[in-house]
Amino acid sequence: GLGDQDRLRARRAVVRVQGLLGPEAVRVPVLSGGHGPAERITLTVLGLVAPEPVPQADPGQPWPGRLPDPSPAVLFDDPVDLLDAQGNPIRVTSRGMFSADPARLRVRGRDDRL
């Protein structure tokens, strides 16, 4: 863990960056409420309103339809296409099943047969 001196040094660095680039230049991740990983972590401006970051939504509240724990460890920015044998996009049904058997996966222009 960090000691008091390390925390103080980090805080001074943050204040310097905010002084140079503006108070909204430093954002920190905060656990929030939401259905999926992208909603459950939000970026909040550090120190603008409160000394500690405040979540945008209460993470303790029930979120119907949210992904069960454990959350995925990595979220990719680029979407992938999962396709059936005819090249149609595969969807997840309301029952949590694939709409067809996966046959191809497209990622960043790369097309792989499964």
Average pLDDT score = 82
Helix proportion: 10-25%
What is the makeup of the main sheet? 3 strands, antiparallel
N-end to C-end Cα span? 44 Å
The secondary-structure class comes to: alpha+beta
Count up the helices: 2
Global Rg: 21 Å
> Approximately how much beta-strand content do the residues carry?
15-25%
How many strand units?
5
Following the backbone from N to C, one meets helices and strands in this order, namely HEHEEEE
Task: Enumerate the spans where pLDDT stays under 50 for 5 or more consecutive residues.
Answer: none
Global morphology: elongated
Strand order of the largest sheet: 3-4-5
Characterize the structure shown:
With 114 residues, the protein is α+β, with helices and mostly antiparallel strands. Among the domains are: 4-45, no CATH class; 80-113, no CATH class. Helices cover 19% and strands 19% of the residues. The chain contains 2 helices and 5 strands, in the order H-E-H-E-E-E-E. The chain has helices at residues 4-21, 37-40; strands at 27-31, 41-45, 80-83, 104-107, 110-113. A 3-stranded antiparallel beta sheet has the order 3-4-5, with no helix packed on it. The chain is elongated. It starts with a helix and ends with a strand. The model has no long low-confidence stretch (mean pLDDT 82).
